Amino acid sequence: MSYFLGVDIGTSGTKTILINERGKILAEDSARYKLFHPKPLWCEQNPEDWWKATVKTIRNVVSKSGKPAASIKAIGLSGQMHGSVFLDKDDKVIRPALLWNDQRTAEECQEIESRAGGRRSLIKMVANPALTGFTAPKILWLRNHEPRNYARLHKVLLPKDDVRRRLTGEYATEVSDASGMLLLDVRKRGWSTKLLSKLDLDESLLGKVYESEDVTGTLTKKVAKTLGLTTDCVVVGGAGDCAANAVGTGVVKSGVLSTSIGTSGVMFVHSDEVQVDPAGRLHTFCHAVRGKWHMMGVNLCAGGSLQWFAEKLCSEVGDKVYDVLNREATKARPGSDGLFFLPYLAGERTPHADPDARGCFVGLTLAHDRAQMARSIMEGVTYSMRDSLEIIRGMKVPVKQVRVSGGGSKSKLWRQLQADVFGTKAVTINAEQGPAYGVALLAAVGAGAYKNVQQACTATIRETSSTPVDRKTKRIYDARFPVYQDLYQSLKGNFKAISALEG
Q1: Whole-number Å distance between alpha carbons of 422 and 84
Q2: 250-430+463-496: CATH architecture
Q3: Which of 39, 357, 399, 431 is the most exposed place for a label (fewest CB within 10 A)?
Q4: Res. 381: pLDDT tops 80
Q5: What does CATH list as the number for 3-243?
Q6: 64-96: b or e for each residue (b if 16 or more CB lie within 10 Å)?
Q7: Residue 162: which of 26, 50, 326, 32 has the closest Cα?
Q8: What are the pLDDT digits (tens) for 247-262?
Q9: For this structure, is 478 an active site residue?
Q10: How confident is the model over 58-73, as pLDDT tens digits?
Q11: What is the Cα–Cα distance from 150 to 173, expressed in whole angstroms?
Q12: In the chain, where are the structural domains located?
């Protein structure tokens, strides 16, 4: 029997799993690493930490599984999207990587839109507007603010693709992750030479683009020895974490939408055709399914909001803080007695694309306690994801089923909140490993175990539970959702003023 590795290079850590041809997980391991915030709204990581975590987790998984090296046929890579690894001609990292949630590039986004001939022209070229988290503005930031580093620049790679370089020696990416660089012609699934020219960027800076299940290279002799594998082990394109999670939850056909509440919150829907929101509020990217696309809305600080509350304000509760908060929030009444939370702790992406947005509680009174604050955070995050769902529905994209994943899916309360706020039953599936599982399936497809991604998902993924809508609670949230929406509109001017005061 053949076996396949899935490696997810996430924001907080790397997770690696090994599956067999039937999709059964045989072993898994994870390793954490640090985030750095040198200035407000900046977020960086050391690419070397990703590599050390990848080596450690692969070695541990191979050891735990006890499977012979020759039977491990392929590796799929997933990772946090949009990040920028800047390399010189000797493949030395020039500076720490700027991550997906780094918000320093507002001026560069304006520059890109100007050079492209306006927002509409830009969307026409790459299907998306310029957002601070994307990779292209990061390249321009390097050019504008660190010219000496830019002069050394030879390659720009996404996080998972830098790991690929270390595994195979190849500069390569794949369509789903490349879509989030703002340099890909999403319709044609190749680099936008037109936009690159307007930005005075050379295509040679970028890796070769593959479909997600395509083989991009094999392990080098040195790396194979380090990992305990063979040079016959191939590395497939893989996928950005959102598309990988969609594969891992079986969102590979029309009518199925997935939600993921991790550090960020994602609403992801499959599309057989290219569909673009004219206002640019949703992302339109290539899917990790050959010849298909997806639309996606992103809340930058979803589970991250609850994490902030737990770690910064409730640390005295101890190791069981999340269990305590979840239990308390369950006892609070729907609507949190008039308390609203705006989850914009790291700025926001969908639908506002506002790096100046700030998180806040609105409606606090002397009667509110920790339970209501915790519940309002969970409700606010779910409202923010409904913002994306409303746009998807407005574009007449069919949503027949919502599959929930990520840390939020493990909470009974958060599953119920999603069902009630979205007005659609929330379904869980048997695969809980998200992106790592998705790219392990892509590895299996690339190695020939399955004909295509759809076949792989049909063979391995099934529903495990369904949370129905509570109609009474739904009416409560339907009444409160417009109020939530109005709060951003009322406060956005104040957010900008606060940002200006901070310099």
Answers
A1: 34
A2: 2-Layer Sandwich (3.30)
A3: 39
A4: yes
A5: 3.30.420.40
A6: ebebeeeebbbbbbbbbbbbbbbbeeeeeebeb
A7: 50
A8: 999 999 988 899 989 8
A9: no
A10: 999 999 999 999 999 9
A11: 21
A12: 3-243, 250-430+463-496
